[in-house]
Amino acid sequence: MGTLFAYELLLLFKPERNPSSSSFFFHSFKFLLIATFVLDPYLSLEVAQASPCRTACGGIPINYPFGIDDGCGSPYYRHALACSDSGILELRTPSGRYQVRSISYSDPHIIVTDPFMWNCEDGSHFRATRPFSLDTSVHFTLSSQNDYLFFNCSEQDVIIEPKPIFCERFPERCDSTCDSASYLCRHLPGCATALGGSSCCAYFPKATESLRMMLKYCASYTSIYWRNYVANSPDNQVPEYGIRVDFDIPVTTHCLQCQDMTKGGGTCGFDTRSLNFLCFCGGGNSTTYCGDHDNSVQGSRTGVIAGTVTAVSAAGALGIGAGVWYWKKIRAKAPVTCGVQTNENRLF
């Protein structure tokens, strides 16, 4: 394909017998313009589609539905995760970027840390903080296994009192109360006495706005999640600092077929322009699964990078070679102006 383009360009710019300088510039401009239009779709396709799907960042596995390369994973989580040059995985949210500590795919959730939240080293010194928030357009939710502790809140603006026992069975009836008798306030993980004489209460904000309101009247806050140290056993949990973010795994027939080892064992992804499903395979890509050669995609993603890049490179090399050959042929017959600008050699 690239050779055919270059041959057509050579025919378009067959040299004239007595070319002038103005003719040379005119034809050169036409040559570059047409070459750009001919080659640009192939070059832009490779820029948008040529990145392979990395499977880990800083030791944390990156599996479906996530991807740290554009076009990998599910489009629902496009740009949700980012891997820095130093190998640090981060979660992107409207309130900032947060380091990811771990990802679980069997019990779908992410654990992130917020450096602005209170920690044991702060003690009774509370730093300025900001509310953590999630993008509502992404399939993320704050886990109910999170507990939020607020420190030195204004008793005039926040309802601070011990929650009755029935709140454990009917928590919706106690939403407006910040629990001063919270177990975690009395047993801070790793530093039970770090607060000194500062007050503490537990409250689960239902929305980002309620969290902002709490921080307006409280000195600081922190998040503690309950980690299962025995798999799938809610009765065996330990509290740890961090934010647990739950996510959904979109299950589609296309992705299941793509991942099926008996059908080639591909990687689920999507076209970065149309967002349509793509199955990335070792020897070429498909809109269904790796063994389905009738629905293979030409010129997309990693499977055909070598072929398309070679074709584009060949076309570019031949095109540039043709331009240089034509320029030298014209230059040999062009009049010598010795730097004098005339209507014959004027650029514009």
UniProtKB/TrEMBL annotation:
Keywords for the protein's UniProt record, in alphabetical order: Membrane, Signal, Transmembrane, Transmembrane helix
InterPro entries found in the cross-reference section: WAK_GUB (IPR025287)
Gene Ontology cellular-component annotations: membrane
Gene Ontology molecular function, alphabetical: polysaccharide binding
Taxon lineage: Eukaryota, Viridiplantae, Streptophyta, Embryophyta, Tracheophyta
Subcellular location: Membrane
Predominant location category: membrane
Pfam families: GUB_WAK_bind (PF13947)
Name the record gives this protein: Wall-associated receptor kinase galacturonan-binding domain-containing protein
PANTHER family given in the database record: F12F1.23 PROTEIN, WALL-ASSOCIATED RECEPTOR KINASE CARBOXY-TERMINAL PROTEIN-RELATED
Secretion signal, residue range per the UniProt entry: none
Keyword Magnesium part of the UniProt annotation: no
UniProt key word Signal: yes
Domain Wall-associated receptor kinase galacturonan-binding residues, every copy: 53-114
Transmembrane stretches, start-end: 304-327
Topology relative to the membrane: Single-pass membrane protein
